[in-house]
Specification:
- The chain has 206 residues and is α/β, with parallel strands linked by helices.
- The chain has a domain at 2-111 and 172-205: Rossmann fold (3-Layer(aba) Sandwich).
- 49% of the residues lie in helices and 17% in strands.
- It contains ten helices and eight strands.
- The chain has helices at 13-24, 31-40, 44-55, 61-72, 90-99, 115-120, 134-137, 158-172, 174-181, 194-205; strands spanning 2-7, 27-30, 81-84, 104-109, 122-125, 131-133, 150-151, 185-189.
- A five-stranded parallel beta sheet has the order 2-3-1-4-8, with helices on both faces. Strands 6-5-7 form a three-stranded antiparallel beta sheet.
- Helix 1 (13-24) packs across helix 10 (194-205) and helix 4 packs parallel to helix 5 (90-99).
- The longest helix is centred in the last third of the chain and has 15 residues, at 158-172.
- The structure holds adenosine monophosphate.
- Adenosine monophosphate binds at residues 9, 31-32, 35, 52-53, 56-59, 64, 85-88, 92, 155, 164.
- Residues 9, 31-32, 35, 52-53, 56-59, 64, 85-88, 92, 155, 164 line the site of adenosine monophosphate (AMP).
């Protein structure tokens, strides 16, 4: 199954993608994780995109599309995959339709005014990539999942979050209509517990 998880930053895409890919045994492909890995390793791509990501803007389409195309051609994607954070605009969706047509698009719907608090209280694990909210883990510094080191993403600050939400509204939200018109969109209420959202996604994918 080829699945897209669509949703605003902080809607829970990463958390749900990890759970769903584990359950369905499909590859979890997060463009954000790929970019952050490049930044951490200081690759030419990483050096080029660091300031873009830190500021909350989108990386260039051509580069992003090429990275995804290459990643989807790897053997672990043969049984299907779950795209988390791609496509992020119509140009990317049109490109994707040319090399890998998705089966279902899950939209994690959440009112945008609730997002800022979700993101600014987020702590991410350097090792397993999961993220947690300070409302649940307090000020602990180690990952409850794997013991890895928790950190605050550079783009999880209020200024970048504002920009990311503006980018989402202007560029990513139109994808809802794009996939709705193809009959592939499955909206899910993401303003509830991780377990409830996960159950709803599993139901849709059955
Ligand atoms: P995420 O981890 O999905 O929130 O992505 C973090 C950042 O990576 C985004 O704010 C963008 O700067 C960049 N990024 C991730 N996916 C894409 C994409 N499909 N197109 C362009 N930029 C992206």
């Amino acid at each position: 199954m080829k699945i897209i998880l669509l949703g605003a930053p902080g809607s829970g895409k990463g958390t749900q993608a990890a759970l769903v890919s584990e359950q369905l045994k499909v590859a979890h492909i997060s463009t954000g994780d790929i970019f952050r890995d490049n930044i951490q390793r200081k690759t030419p791509i990483g050096l080029k995109i660091k300031s873009i990501i830190d500021g909350g803007d989108l990386c260039p389409d051509e580069l992003t599309i090429e990275i995804v195309k290459q990643r989807l051609s790897e053997p672990d994607c043969k049984n299907g995959y779950l795209l988390d954070g791609f496509p992020r605009n119509i140009a990317q969706a049109v490109a994707l339709d040319e090399f890998a047509v998705p089966d279902k698009v899950i939209e994690l719907a959440i009112p945008l005014y609730k997002i800022e608090r979700r993101i600014t209280g987020r702590r991410s694990c350097a090792k397993c990539k999961n993220s947690f909210h300070i409302d649940f883990i307090g000020d602990r510094k180690d990952c409850p999942n794997c013991g890895g080191e928790l950190f605050i993403r550079e783009d999880d600050n209020p200024t970048s979050v504002k920009e990311r939400l503006a980018v989402y509204k202007a560029q990513t939200e139109p994808l809802i209509e794009y996939y709705e018109s193809q009959g592939k969109l499955f909206p899910i209420d993401a303003d509830c517990s991780i377990e409830k959202v996960f159950d709803a996604i599993v139901k849709v994918l059955k």
